[in-house]
Amino acid sequence: MQLVFATNNLHKLKEVQSMLPQHIQLLSLKDIGCFEDVPETRLTIEGNAIQKADYIKTHYGYDCFADDTGLEVETLNGEPGVYSARYAGEQRDAHNNMDKLLENLSDKSNRNAQFKTVIALHLNGSLETFTGICKGEITKTKHGRGGFGYDPIFKAEGYDQTFAEIALEEKNRIGHRGKAVAQLVTFLNHL
Q1: N or C, which terminus of the chain has less Cβ within 10 Å?
Q2: Contacts of residue 37, Cβ cutoff 8 Å, sequence gap at least 6
Q3: What letter does residue 37 receive in the DSSP assignment?
């Protein structure tokens, strides 16, 4: 089975492919000749995931799935949330985003946060969504060289290391995207 994963993020593509059964071949946006920016203009994480999947299905005709992920910080009323990738500006720089978040939390004692991923799947004429959440906290400084995005400043509940310090397999097992992908895989295996 071939499915398009509506992303140009190679880290995300690799991470998700490693979690899928071998009989599912992932195609990237590049693989289907999609080089334009896929719209992400909704005000919720769920809305963006659905919008991206709808776009690929409508414009390219492929069965596909899209995800959107946000980091929601409790004391900042859910910021950066749907704006996580461009929190510090349209250039979407992970280090600038982390620096801005750490600055905004500099005088806060409550550092509780959660990563939330929503996957929207268009398959055989129907739309399904899957949600994964990983609760944790924001560290005071960056730790680790692995992962991407906010991984160097996010520590999952029950862990002493950030997502950037733990193995990819462990991150996939406990993380937001891993939980959402696990639901997707279960769904695909029962077709």
Answers
A1: C
A2: none
A3: P
**pLDDT tens track, the chain, 191 positions:** 889 999 888 878 887 888 888 888 899 999 999 999 899 999 999 999 999 999 999 999 999 999 999 999 999 999 999 999 999 998 889 999 999 999 999 999 999 999 999 999 999 999 999 999 999 999 999 999 988 899 999 999 999 999 999 998 899 899 999 999 999 999 998 87
SS3 138: strand
The beta-strand segments (E) located in the chain are: 2-5, 25-27, 64-73, 80-81, 112-123, 126-138, 154-156
Taking the alpha carbons at both ends of the chain, their separation in whole angstroms is 11
Could you tell me the residue ranges of all domains in the chain?
2-189
- Give the list of residues 6+ apart from residue 125 with CB closer than 8 angstroms, or none: none
Decide if 91 contacts 104 (C-beta within 8 A): no
Catalytic sites, residue numbers:
68
- Of 3.90.550.10, 3.90.950.10, 3.20.20.70, 3.20.130.10, which CATH number belongs to 2-189? 3.90.950.10
Does pTM surpass 0.85?
A: yes
